[in-house]
Write a structure and sequence with these properties.
By secondary structure, the protein is of the alpha+beta class. Helices cover about 15% and strands about 30% of the residues.
């Protein structure tokens, strides 16, 4: 394959989901532009990957030493595909979100259960949110320092 053919393929997609290893990220057109260890000199500790979706949403994914995504935070001009980001945790999120539909569409979303803690807020062209799986958060991790609302 020529260099031009490789360039035509574009960047490697890298958007993962809660509870899924980053290595299993789906091919959705998202582009990883930063990956780093959260603890200098500790490659086996938590790490983060920053991803930009085709719609311009920036997603920060946080994975434990096992590579499994335990938390994420996002912001951008639109709400990302939460079903993709929350993965198998999305049905619980959707049920909790549906149960509070009377609060109105513009009200901030707060979901707190033993399986998932999620927050979302914003208005047209300025949305943000975060979510984490309590059982997957490595001991001693400061979620607030990561930009994830505890």
């Amino acid at each position: 394959m020529s260099v031009f053919a490789l360039l035509a393929l574009g960047p490697t997609p890298a958007l993962g989901a809660l509870g899924v290893p980053l290595s299993a990220a789906s091919a959705d057109g998202s582009v990883a532009f930063e990956a780093r260890s959260l603890h200098a000199g500790a490659p086996a500790g938590p790490s983060s990957t920053t991803v930009r979706t085709p719609a311009g949403v920036t997603v920060h994914e946080y994975a434990g030493a096992d590579g499994v995504v335990f938390a994420l935070a996002w912001s951008g001009p639109t709400v990302p595909d939460l079903q993709q980001l929350y993965g198998s945790y999305f049905p619980g999120y959707a049920a909790a979100r549906g149960a509070r539909a009377s609060a109105g569409y513009r009200a901030p979303v707060r979901v707190r259960s033993a399986q998932l803690v999620a927050h979302a807020w914003g208005h047209m062209r300025d949305y943000a949110g975060s979510a984490y799986v309590p059982a997957l958060v490595p001991p001693g991790t400061d979620l607030a320092a990561l930009g994830v609302q505890p």
